[in-house]
Design goal:
The chain is an alpha/beta fold. Helix content is 43%, strand content 18%. The chain has a single domain, classed as Pyruvate-ferredoxin Oxidoreductase, domain 3. The chain has 8 helices and 6 strands; from the N terminus they run E-H-E-E-E-H-E-H-H-E-H-H-H-H.
């Protein structure tokens, strides 16, 4: 089976780890070999959380620089930070709603210009799908569903060997019952957004 390498980057609290669990469960439902690893960083203090997920017959979950098939960023500057994992063949999906780090809030850092950020990512990769996932999460009924919106966009690309129905079934088993319908709606909105990009 072909190997597909996915990197997910986010800020602590954005639901990166839940997204990874949903993708892992969907892969198991589909009978696809999957390996995952996570780097938590300072997640509880709004720091970086990075997940590496490898689908198919791979020996390791480590994704070297330049080897990701797809990068999903929950926060624009984190997407830019992780672009070293990409190549000219990588597809990048990113939320464009900034969550500036505290260094920006206290005047000790500068947040990157979003237009310039997109230009830099486009120069290094095959395709960029960039949109306001936070607005779609809010439309779905829960502003915290950014992760599910981005999963929908990811599934729409067809890069992963998973279907939308497998993702939705994994959502039913891996998320709290109170959030299942909102999360499924968020996936559908992400699918539609990626189809228009």
């Amino acid at each position: 089976m072909d190997v597909t390498r996915l990197i997910i980057v986010a800020v602590g609290g954005q639901g990166n780890l839940l997204s990874s669990r949903v993708l892992g469960e969907a892969a198991l439902l589909a009978g696809i070999p999957v390996r995952m690893s996570e780097i938590h960083g300072m997640a509880q203090r709004g720091g970086v959380v990075e997940s590496a997920i490898v689908f198919g017959d791979a020996e390791s979950s480590i994704i070297s620089d330049g080897c990701a098939d797809v990068l999903v960023g929950f926060e624009p500057s984190e997407t830019l930070r992780a672009v070293n994992k990409c190549s000219k063949d990588t597809v990048v999906i990113t939320n464009m709603t900034p969550l500036p780090p505290f260094t920006v809030a206290i005047g000790r850092g500068v947040y990157p210009d979003l237009d310039q950020l997109q230009t830099l990512v486009k120069q290094k990769t095959a395709r960029l799908i960039a949109f306001d996932a936070a607005a779609l999460a809010k439309e779905a009924g829960n502003v915290l569903s950014v992760n599910m919106v981005l999963l929908g966009a990811l599934i729409q690309t067809g890069i992963l060997p998973l279907t939308a129905e497998q993702i939705k079934e994994a959502i039913r088993t891996k998320t709290k019952k109170a959030f299942v319908e909102t999360n499924i709606k968020a996936v559908d909105l992400g699918i539609a957004a990626a189809a228009q990009s």
